[in-house]
Design a protein that fits this description.
13 helices; 3 domains; alpha+beta; Endonuclease, Chain A; 3-stranded antiparallel beta sheet
Length: about 280
Amino acid sequence: MARMDDAPARAVATRTAELGGVVRPTRLIREGHSRHRISQALQCGFVLRVRRDWIALPTADAHVVSAARTGVVLSCVTAADRRGLWVAERPDKPHVAYPGRGRVDGPAAVVHWQRAIVPRHPDLLEDEIENVLLTVASCQPYEAARAIWDSALNKKLVDLAHLRRLPWTGAARRLVREASPWADSGLETFVIVRLRWMGLPIRSQIWIYGHRVDFLIGDRLVLQVDGGHHVGAQRTEDIRHDAELMLLGYHVIRVGYEQVMNRWPEVQEQIMHAVAQGLHKA
């Protein structure tokens, strides 16, 4: 049981929490915490031994604890999702990367073995954003990977000029040429990539007469994509806005998220027929 004189051990737990809940004892020792103090924190139950060279709070993030225990770092779509990036589908198993040191204990995960493009510090259990993008590029289909790259740029987690100075290989070389910071969601990336073959100007999230539209194809063809929040008052406002656009000479195609992600041929056919009729022209 903890006692009033356990302040030094509590300090270890406090610092562990500040560092994300899982930390190497060597990191704490470099900062001035003694081995005795760390041992006391373990004896009191303030922290737990995860692996020989890692300790964690009892309440630490389970994914991070598992990474420390198995000798990997969180990466690819798992790390992208944890950073709030747009991920088309959360994986059944966590995606991790082998950091090139120690021993991997064969976790129930997808392990990426390629060399990191940014050196991995031994104290980190979540990959740098550049390494996340590298593993995504080699793991995911082009559209899904491009959506994550665009999302990282849009959220300003990384700069495009910086990315283009790095020595990318494989699929990442195409992504670094084509990724854009202007997509507000991965859905926009999917639509733009899938319609690029038509050779028409496609602008996303632009304002027309005081209202923002999802996509403007050519001069007059508007594509609106409804998410789950387009119900009730929002749905009524959408219908009113569609009518206003049509009175102004625009043609509006409104589809749902599920159609774009799972029934794209239907959406594409509607757009193709609209273009064939010249409805995209001023």
